Amino acid sequence: MKKFAKSRFNFLSLALLALSASANAQQYDLLDLSAQPLNNEVCATCHGGAGVGNASVGGPSLAGLEPWYLRKQLENFRAGIRGTQKEYIPGNEMQASVARLSDEEISELVDHISNWEAVAPKPRIEGDASKGQALYAACAACHGASGDGNEALGAPGLAGRNDWYMFRQLKLFQSGFRGKHPEDTAGQLMRPAAQALENDEAINDVLAYINTL
Ligand code: HEC
Ligand code: HEC
Question: What pLDDT is stored for residue 35 in this prediction?
Answer without folding.
Answer: 41
